[in-house]
Predict the structure.
Amino acid sequence: MHTRRIGDVEVSAIGLGAMPMSIEGRPDEARSLATVHAALDTGVTLIDTADAYHRDADEVGHNETLIAKALATHDRGKDVLVATKGGHRRPGDGSWTLDGSPAHLKAACEESLRRLGVEAIGLYQFHRPDPGVPYEESVGAIRDLLDEGKIRMAGISNANPDQIRLAGDILGGRLVSVQNQFSPAFRSSEPELRLCDELGIAFLPWSPLGGISRAGELGSAHAPFATIAAAHGVSPQRVCLAWMLAKSPVVVPIPGASRPETIRDSAAASDLVLTAEELAELDAA
């Protein structure tokens, strides 16, 4: 597994997005634990979670608890950077709501610390801007957590270029990552990717394969990915992740998975080298 950097931490070039193991349609715990362990066996050292990755109202932090259990039961668990997030809520009816208030973010961080069983969270990210709260106040809470040593590194998610610059200023130059949606079907985060490349900030594409329900359709929806995959004897999903890695050394995709075979295939994208002509064809797809 090749590596990249988030702040001063070296991580695997491909991370694991853990959300599918805790929301609607999730597998049983045994398969989820096997999926995380398979990721670690391939050399994955970045796992992305959030307190809002749960299904029912009374199980906030389900995914964080699951990840903590998986890491505690694998001999490579201590080598993993766990990235979690605060600022979203799930009332249990399938919807997602927002709470970017400083009071909520600070309380949420305390609960994440407890569930993960750590003294400081490796990477804590503001999950999504809340229109009801000034962005400066939300990111200011993240800055306070950083100053207090509750978190080791700070990131933001679902941010635009102006918010990235603002967060960098509020955090005193300590913003290490931006996590935005980016995939062959969703490329509107290209400006944020370019800005992160310019600033040397890690860019973490979420749903890089198109999302839980559409990842399997990637090749049929975007024919060049299937064509190039066939030429290399690999899956279109692996080609997709290799294409993202080639865009910039700051890109660290976090494909979601809920089966061991899926994360094994994704992790192998670290070793897939595409030609300049292939990359150009995929850019135009």
The first helix runs from residue 29 to 42. Residues 86 and 109 are 7 Å apart (CA to CA). DSSP finds eleven helices and eleven strands in the chain.
